């Protein structure tokens, strides 16, 4: 094939307005007209402002801070403001927001999930009314960016028992000592929800630590191969003093932390569906443009087989997430249901990334064609917020009537 026959690199996963090409069963039509209008505004913002620059920022391992203003103008979190008249968002709409973000870039989805799904949700779920009014309005408007400090350098799946960061009460203050690792947004966050064990009661407590607090330092982690746009940090807490007024009032045990994490598992599953949508659409566009033997490769049987398998996985996972969101909106969803979604969707996402990379051949490893970024970022989604094995143990315990296979 001559150089003149080679197609230009796709600019991004967008192929037009309306339903996404990967939404084969038109699940998006389950949203209300207002929700679809808001989703389309987000889609337009990501298409015009984010998609053209993301590979460059990914390569440089930097976050496009100027995009935060765009998120502010979209008003996606206005419903959480205590003084807002906005109706509370449905879990289905929030799921499609996560899908749309993942459809463009898993790092942007992670930024949004950490800020809204972990940090702000911790305050909304576990804070007092005064604390909600103090912090949430600014977070809704993206004027204050949040982070969530749970994971530790030597911790992992056993975070409930293995949490080593300590909190010691001294009068009207708490003294925090310890370290956190892999904390997204932490290098530029205005406040970080820190989880620490009370040395007196041994219970896990939550604290809101504002930036520039003495004894708190956040250092950017380097040399990541995935989610490079996310600014993960190593946090050190060295005699960090936090007022009693900044202790989350209803976070008095690890069960409170687990409630926040339970909801985040389903968000990660939605993002993984978005990643599948994005990679599929890039592969589809490539298949219709890239020529071999004088015609587009999309006309060959083996290529169509790959595309069919990819859209099958994506459609199955999207259907699972839609039903899970409906259960969440009904207030009847269970922990094992979000665990199954996280394990299943991220596993099939990983499979799809291999097929998308295969379809693009050598171009699949070039950032210019976007799929390579999706492939790398999928590895992080597969592991964070609970590994596949931990999720399957949660499911296994449920389906066997409570027989736990967790290490005692």
Automatic annotation (TrEMBL):
Gene3D superfamilies, alphabetized: Acyl-CoA dehydrogenase/oxidase, N-terminal domain, Butyryl-CoA Dehydrogenase, subunit A, domain 2, Butyryl-CoA Dehydrogenase, subunit A, domain 3
UniProt xrefs under InterPro entries: ACX4-like, Acyl-CoA_DH_CS, Acyl-CoA_Oxase/DH_mid-dom, Acyl-CoA_Oxase/DH_mid-dom_sf, AcylCo_DH-like_C, AcylCo_DH/oxidase_C, AcylCoA_DH/ox_N, AcylCoA_DH/ox_N_sf
Cofactor(s) listed: FAD
Limits of the Acyl-CoA oxidase/dehydrogenase middle domain: 147-240
Residues annotated as domain Acyl-CoA dehydrogenase/oxidase N-terminal: 35-142
Key words of the record: FAD, Flavoprotein, Oxidoreductase
Acyl-CoA dehydrogenase/oxidase C-terminal domain sequence ranges: 255-399
Domain of life of the native organism: Bacteria
Pfam family membership, one: Acyl-CoA_dh_M
Keyword presence, Manganese: no
Family per record: Belongs to the acyl-CoA dehydrogenase family.
UniProt-recorded name of the protein: Acyl-CoA dehydrogenase family protein
Taxonomic source organism: Streptomyces glomeratus
């Amino acid at each position: 094939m001559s150089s003149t026959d080679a197609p230009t690199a796709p600019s991004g996963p967008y192929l037009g307005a309306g339903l996404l090409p990967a939404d084969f069963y038109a699940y998006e039509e389950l949203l209300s007209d207002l929700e679809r209008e808001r989703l389309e505004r987000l889609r337009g913002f990501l298409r015009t402002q984010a998609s053209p620059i993301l590979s460059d920022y990914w390569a440089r391992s930097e976050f496009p801070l100027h995009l935060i203003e765009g998120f502010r103008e979209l008003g996606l979190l206005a419903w959480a403001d205590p003084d807002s008249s906005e109706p509370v968002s449905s879990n289905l709409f929030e799921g499609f927001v996560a899908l749309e973000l993942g459809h463009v870039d898993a790092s942007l989805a992670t930024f949004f999930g950490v800020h809204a799904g972990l940090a702000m949700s911790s305050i909304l779920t576990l804070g007092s009314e005064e604390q909600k009014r103090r912090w949430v309005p600014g977070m809704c408007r993206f004027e204050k960016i949040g982070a969530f400090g749970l994971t530790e350098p030597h911790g992992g799946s056993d975070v409930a028992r293995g949490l080593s960061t300590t909190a010691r009460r001294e009068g009207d203050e708490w003294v925090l000592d310890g370290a956190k690792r892999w904390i997204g947004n932490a290098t530029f966050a205005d406040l970080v929800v820190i989880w620490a064990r009370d040395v007196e009661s041994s219970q896990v407590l939550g604290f809101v630590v504002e930036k520039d607090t003495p004894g708190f330092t956040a250092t950017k982690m380097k040399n990541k191969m995935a989610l490079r746009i996310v600014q993960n940090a190593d946090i050190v807490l060295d005699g960090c003093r936090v007022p009693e007024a900044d202790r989350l009032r209803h976070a008095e045990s690890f069960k409170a932390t687990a409630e926040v994490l339970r909801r985040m598992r389903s968000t990660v599953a939605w993002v993984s569906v978005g990643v599948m949508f994005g990679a599929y659409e890039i592969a589809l566009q490539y298949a219709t443009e890239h020529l071999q033997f004088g015609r587009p490769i999309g006309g060959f049987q083996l290529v169509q087989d790959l595309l069919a398998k990819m859209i099958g996985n994506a459609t199955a996972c999207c259907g699972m997430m839609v039903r899970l969101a409906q259960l969440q909106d009904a207030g009847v969803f269970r922990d094992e249901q979000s665990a199954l979604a996280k394990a299943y969707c991220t596993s099939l996402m990983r499979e799809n990334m291999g097929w998308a990379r295969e379809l693009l051949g050598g171009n699949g490893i070039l950032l210019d064609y976007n799929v390579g970024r999706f492939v790398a970022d999928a590895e992080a989604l597969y592991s964070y917020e609970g590994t596949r094995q931990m999720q399957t143990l949660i499911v296994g315990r449920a389906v066997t009537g409570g027989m736990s296979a967790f290490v005692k």
